[in-house]
Design a protein that fits this description.
The structure holds two protein chains of two kinds. By secondary structure, chain A is mainly alpha-helical. In chain A, 74% of the residues lie in helices and 2% in strands. In chain A, strands 1-2 form a two-stranded antiparallel sheet. Classes of the chains: A mainly alpha, B alpha+beta. Chain B: Pfam families: ABC_tran, TOBE_2.
Chain lengths: 288, 363
Amino acid sequence: MAGGLFSTERGRTVALVTPPFIYALLLLALPLGAIILFSFWQKDGYDVVPTFTLENYRAFLDGEVYQVLLGRSLKVSAIVTVITVILAYPIAYFISFRVPNNRKSLWLFLITIPFWTSYLVRVFLWKVILGYNGVINSGLLQIGLIDEPLTFILYSVNSVIITLAHAFAPFAILPIFVALEKIDRSLLEAAQDLGENRVTTFLRVTLPLSMPGLMAAILIVFIPTIGDYVTPELMGGSGGKLIANMIQTQFLQLNNAPLGAALAIIAMLCVTLISLLLIFLNRRWLRV
Amino acid sequence: MTADDRSALIELRAVHKWYGDYHALRGIDLKIRSGEFFSLLGPSGCGKTTLLRTIAGFEPISDGVMYLDGRNVAGVAPNHRPTNMVFQSYAIFPHLSVAENVGFGLRRDKRSKEEKARAVGEALEMVGLAGYGARPSHALSGGQRQRVALARALILKPKVLLLDEPLSALDKKMREQMQVELMKLQREVGITFILVTHDQEEALVMSDRIAVMFEGEIGQLGDPESLYRRPNSARVAEFIGMMNFLPGSVSGTTVEMPGLGRAEVAAEQLTSGSFTGPARIGIRPETLSLLFDGEPDRGRVAPGMVDEVVYYGDMTYYDVRLDGVPEPVRISMKNLIGRPVLDVGTPCRVTWDEQALVVLPAA
């Protein structure tokens, strides 16, 4: 027993696995378990009573406002994801295929620079750009293209979408870039050699081979946007609130943690289902 | 127009390629005949792969003219050239099965699905991979990947098949086996093969003709035997096989060598043209022989001493110091029954033949 814990293969395995296990337990499993538990408990005045109930879930099924908010959340997330990924792909493609190798890290670095500032600051900057007297409106007014400020770009779902799409851009660019970088360039030459032009080479080789990165980008953007409440709070106005704002309201303003927890669980289940569906479709049709 | 011109499938005239300041191809003139197994041989960086890629259309040429099958191919993209390529990395599409890889180029083909599937099956059979169609391509070994790459290119029945160091990633046994298979395949399909290689043995074994390239130029062009027997420069001689060089001089066709004496050679043995003055006289190790007891000399005998012995089993390489020759010469001897392996320091006699000499001007 000279070596103690590290003397056996099993001991080493346990020693290696323990710290991340404790980490996962404390930071992931415990909060999640607490939320699940809360969602089945009762609210009594300002307190939460540990009595089992399905009342919170029933409230969701009966409350049209929750369903509307969740539906809007899913819709906004889907639109943000599509916009972000469609805009990110050409950028990632350009860096991977057109920028010389020794400049690539510089380009990636430049792309991440705006994200050194706080998320909150960036949201407020979008207010400056999109606002009633913002850069866009005053600019368009100055050159006489519009007579009065555009209102559809601020305090609406649209402004939420614009802000979120910008916020998540690098998270979409990076995985797509990595997937494109991994593509052996001789495969593209081979496709051309076998009769394909640039466009068909892209469709038959580059795009399918970059699908893992594309999927990662879609999930990385889609999942956190559902839970984002800062942007809709600040940019959404009254019509642009999302399910996360309702969860926040339930927890912090209405002191109804059980209902907030139930809403959180339902939103999470939606995300899980959609993600699984995407992964399944990807496996089934693209075999990557 | 001579018969030779008519059968030239590929013709390059004064082809140059610049990469910025770097002159990769320096005036290549070349005709490759239809049905030929042609090799571009040279050390790395000599421009052989660049030349292949200009023929495939991946690199535009900077100057000169290139005809493929009678057509000037300036500005013609790879997908519109009658060439197909086997890449050094094989470039097998990882997201497609073996059959999908082989059938990749058939998309524009007008044939029915069934006919295409049959063509894919036949192509796989031709390269010895019958029944592998459904396998995922990432599960293939190196040799199998190469066969898939071959089938994928040959199924399109190109006029020219371009092979970029196709055997360099394989182990020695596999490489030798594939050399023979490639030769057989080429004879079977009758397609012109252009092989890029840095392996002189591979080029000698497989090719009808070889262009030896150095620094963007063709050093010598010829069939394997003439390249080996009559190299026109010291670098060709040293790149293909092993060559002893003795200092000497030449006057007309009379060669004078210290230690070995005077010899008469044929005009063709002055492979870079006739000249008078100091010369480098090349002689291959296997054309020099140690004289063992009872073996006939070839009329010429020089005394020497064994300086180094390298035993290879079937062969023994001797470095022998000849009287009057500054550097030891290398001699390769078959280990026939009854022939002893000499020890270092043994006095010996060396016989040689003036027909084996190659006479080049001294550098």
